[in-house]
């Protein structure tokens, strides 16, 4: 039986390309006589909505059509907005659910323990009340982990992977990755003139909490050194490389790009703030810490530290992200109309396919150090690429 009413939401951090997915689903759905309903603010839209309150309903539920999605793919961000809500791990209940009984348990992440509610039962009731037949969930590991839970509870879900870190398992590509690399390399090329004019070491910090794909691929195309979470470098050796490169450069400067989660031997990235709904705390700047070490160990040397993280999220998507995002959206809708669910749109061996939703217990997809990172030179590996898919990596 063909799907009649489809919900769609975006969760976690925004990336360029999300609006292309949404528009693609709406436009193809209109051709198939399907109704598409937007759930605003990610999973929060299904936990905090009070369907008996018109104002709450208007805040969280948005019927989608060709008219209100016609131009959304021309900009970045997400037309449906987003949040980092996890319905299975809520520290507090929404006001309209106060006093109701929901399962409660302890949740511990990185040594921090808190009591959380699981209001999945209410999410399922809201989906039923909205008369939705299935759901398309767009997000990274955190968003998709709850989508998998919902599918196991009996509500059909198809997932679409997005993250600038490109670290979702079972796919070689996540929406937002190409634009992030484009933004990072553009920024580094622009800042070369400043770093060179002042004859300094340029340090660039990019996203990559647990996986170093963004830093690695930026370094690959910018031909500079990089530090990634998968490998702890020797600090003296790294500084030696940067100073040697600086002295041999006619403009007397050198550059390095670092994942936010990169560490060196004997050093651990500091974190701060309260954990979010998925247990993540914000990380202090490894770039600033490296800068301090360079100044301390190589007296007289100066640095320029540039945090590129949030700048990589902004603006419209590049061609690759528009292409993949639109295709992923169409694939998700095709899957649902064919009765498929509990799957994720993906690219495997360079080809579009449907993969299993990743098991959250396995964690993010890491950089393959042996084939991708030169541990002697702290650079990407440029050899042995014959036969690899276009994105130089394998789904795992």
Walkthrough of the structure:
This protein is 33% helix and 20% strand. With 396 residues, the chain is of the alpha/beta class. A hairpin with a 4-residue loop joins strand 16 and strand 17. Helix 1 packs across helix 11 and helix 7 packs across helix 8.
Structural class: alpha/beta
What is the rounded Rg? 22 Å
Structural shape: globular
Q: At the first level of CATH, what is the class of the largest domain?
A: Alpha Beta
For this entry, give a set of tags.
396 residues, alpha/beta, Rossmann fold, seven-stranded mixed sheet, four-stranded parallel sheet, 33% helix, globular
Summarize the structure.
The protein has 396 residues and is α/β, with parallel strands linked by helices. The protein is 33% helix and 20% strand. It is built from twelve helices and 17 strands.
């Amino acid at each position: 039986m063909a799907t009649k009413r489809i919900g769609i939401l975006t969760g976690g951090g925004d990336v360029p390309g999300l609006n292309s997915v949404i528009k693609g689903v709406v436009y193809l759905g209109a051709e198939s006589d399907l109704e598409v309903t937007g759930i605003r603010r990610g999973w929060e839209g299904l936990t905090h909505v009070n369907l008996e309150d018109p104002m709450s309903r208007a805040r969280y539920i948005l019927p989608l059509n060709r008219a209100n999605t016609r131009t959304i793919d021309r900009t970045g961000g997400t037309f449906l907005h987003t949040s980092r809500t996890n319905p299975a791990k809520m520290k507090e209940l929404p006001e309209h659910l106060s006093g109701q009984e929901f399962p409660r348990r302890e949740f511990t992440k990185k040594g921090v323990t808190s009591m959380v509610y699981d209001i999945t039962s209410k999410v399922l009731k809201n989906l039923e009340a909205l008369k939705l037949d299935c759901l398309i969930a767009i997000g990274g590991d955190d968003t998709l982990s709850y989508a998998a839970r919902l599918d196991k509870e009996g509500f059909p879900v198809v997932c679409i992977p997005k993250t600038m870190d490109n670290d979702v398992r079972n796919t070689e590509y996540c929406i937002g990755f190409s634009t992030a690399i484009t933004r990072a390399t553009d920024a580094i090329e622009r800042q070369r003139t400043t770093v060179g004019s002042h004859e300094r070491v340029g340090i660039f910090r990019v996203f990559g909490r647990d996986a170093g794909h963004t830093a690695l691929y930026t370094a690959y195309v910018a031909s500079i050194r990089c530090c990634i979470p998968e490998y702890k470098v020797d600090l003296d050796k790294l500084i030696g490389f940067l100073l040697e490169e600086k002295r041999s450069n006619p403009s007397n400067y050198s550059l390095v790009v670092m994942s936010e989660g990169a560490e060196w031997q004997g050093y651990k990235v500091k974190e701060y703030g309260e954990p979010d709904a998925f247990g993540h705390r914000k990380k202090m700047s490894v770039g600033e810490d490296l800068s301090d070490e360079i100044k301390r160990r190589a007296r007289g040397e100066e640095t320029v530290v540039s945090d590129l993280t949030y700048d990589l999220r902004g603006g419209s998507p590049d061609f690759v992200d528009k292409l993949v995002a639109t295709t992923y959206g169409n694939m998700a809708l095709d899957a649902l109309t064919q009765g498929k669910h509990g799957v994720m749109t993906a690219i495997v061996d360079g080809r579009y396919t449907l993969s299993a939703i990743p098991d959250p217990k396995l964690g993010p997809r890491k950089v393959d150090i042996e084939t991708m990172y030169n541990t002697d030179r702290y650079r990407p590996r440029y050899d042995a690429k014959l036969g690899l898919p276009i994105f130089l990596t394998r789904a795992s």
